[in-house]
Amino acid sequence: MAMGQSEKSALRLTNVSKSYGRVRALENLSFRVAEGRFFVLFGPSSVGKTTTLRTIAGLIAPERGHVEIFGKDWTHEPIAGRGVSMVFQSFALYPHLTVYDNLAYPLIEEKRPREEIDRRVKETATMLRLDTKINRKPNTLSGGEQQRVALGRSLIRRPRILLLDEPLTNLDAKLRHDMRAELKRLHRQFGLTIVYATPDELEALSMGEEIAVMRDGGVVQIGTPDELFEAPCDLYVASKIGSPHMNMIKGKLATDNAALESAIGPLPFVKKLQAAEAGEAAVVGIRPSDVRFAGKGEQGLKANIAMLEPLGDVTIVSVETGGETLRMVLPESAASGLQPGQQAAVILDPSKFYIFRASSGRTMA
Prior knowledge:
Elements: E1 9-20, E2 23-34, E3 38-42, H1 49-57, E4 64-69, E5 72-73, E6 84-87, H2 99-109, H3 114-127, H4 143-155, E7 161-165, H5 173-190, E8 193-198, H6 201-207, E9 210-215, E10 218-223, H7 225-230, H8 235-240, E11 247-253, E12 259-262, E13 265-268, E14 281-286, E15 291-293, E16 301-311, E17 314-321, E18 324-331, H9 332-335, E19 343-348, E20 354-357
Parallel strand pairs: 3-8, 3-9, 6-7, 7-8
Antiparallel strand pairs: 1-2, 1-4, 4-5, 9-10, 11-12, 11-14, 12-13, 14-20, 15-19, 16-17, 16-19, 17-18
Helix pairs in contact: 2-3, 2-4
InterPro entries: AAA+_ATPase, ABC_transporter-like_ATP-bd, ABC_transporter-like_CS, ABC_transpr_MalK/UgpC-like, Mo/tungstate-bd_C_term_dom, NA-bd_OB-fold, P-loop_NTPase, Transp-assoc_OB_typ2
Function: Involved in beta-(1-->2)glucan export. Transmembrane domains (TMD) form a pore in the inner membrane and the ATP-binding domain (NBD) is responsible for energy generation.
Membrane topology: Peripheral membrane protein
């Protein structure tokens, strides 16, 4: 679901760069977010996700580039008036104030009438299922409840864009799951534009309508979860999207560019590569779900079963062949009789190969 021209742009960053001393936090960062979209910035820590959010919020001024919000250039404008609200990883609640007063605080600062404050606090508390906790102090609440108060304090200002910086990192797995559902519900209910930063692949794929995969202060690829899974533009994206991660087999191209010569033997391609040098170093990627055991009468790669990881209804099976370890995903029933050390023959589906140039990591096919 790439953004059509008819969709209104809520946010556009163009060639934004920012350094701290010698450290480049952002490097020619560009992306556009359609109004009402749940947009995820995804990548490991220190790729520039937080700096990006702080730049959008106006807490940081970039050295180069532009930040447009709903068509207006806000690059060097003050924070106020942007219609942007940010929720940080640490909930940053006022410990001495009740939930009611924590929620009311932004409206008191805006000098809203008392009746309006009371109405909006109660509406927000109900919506976030905090209405029974409204007179409690933050230290008597659970982590999930504290997170909802922090969220409520941002939502009560009715922002046009909500920025969320790894908001679920401090919660346990069950709460994270519940809060993901809660955020998606709020997104639908309000039609908010959300920019959500996370290093968590499951979070990115389950929540993001569109995901920007970040590396070294820039965006490597933007797409829907399906687009990033089906057509990663380079090795980095391929290794980050999909669980368990893609198998990567190093080698060099055969003289006819129709196979990879590798430690596990020649891996023939479905069709010849065009823009490639014979003998060039390359990497073949194949997802664990596209590796299987050979059937009767099939010639497969000789392998040894190295490890079994049961995950409920599926089992991840690691096999060793030619010094490489390949992971495969089997239904629990198909893996039940397997033991480490057993010999096996495996088949890799060549129609499911991803082929990358070793030098740049960019996709070749």
